[in-house]
Design a protein that fits this description.
Layout lengths: L4 E9 L2 E6 L2 E6 L11 E5 L2 E6 L1 H19 L2
Antiparallel strand pairs: 1-2, 1-4, 2-3, 4-5
């Protein structure tokens, strides 16, 4: 199973975004997404930013993912 994870863009250089997810930084391609900007939250799947998402929705999704991870750790 694959997950698409929300992350915040912190830098862009030549269609490659440096994204941040709770302090973990990775590169993601912006080739599939037009008009992405530093500070935007994006959904990242398989190394590609595929959709812009507003901050409130991104934070809600991240909270849910953390809760699911905590449940899995306690089983």
């Amino acid at each position: 199973m694959c997950l698409a994870i929300p992350a915040r863009i912190i830098q862009i250089e030549d269609q490659i975004a440096l994204i941040d997810l709770d302090g973990t930084r990775r590169n993601a391609s912006l080739l599939l997404l037009e008009d992405a900007a530093v500070g935007d939250y994006v959904i990242v799947h398989a190394g590609f930013a595929i959709h812009r998402i507003d901050e409130e929705d991104a934070r809600a999704a991240l909270t849910l993912l953390r809760e699911m991870a905590d449940l899995a750790d306690h089983q």
